[in-house]
Amino acid sequence: MTEQAEPTLTIGETTYVVSELSDEVREMLSLHQQAQEMAIHAKRQATIHDLSVENLAARIEQAVKETEESDVKSA
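Above: the chain sequence. Below: its structure as tokens.
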């Protein structure tokens, strides 16, 4: 069975074993990780929204052109 290395935190040139850090520091590390995950999620959501805006703009342009073409044929 393979032993897993304990999680560590490196600050500058010093490496600390996470389990040996204070409760306050471990809580801040947990919050930091959660904030990173939320930031990644927000960036993905922003990309999805940007693509939606671009798609809608293209569809609006297409609809306007089709309306113009229809008006020209009717005239």
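The longest helix spans residues 23-74.
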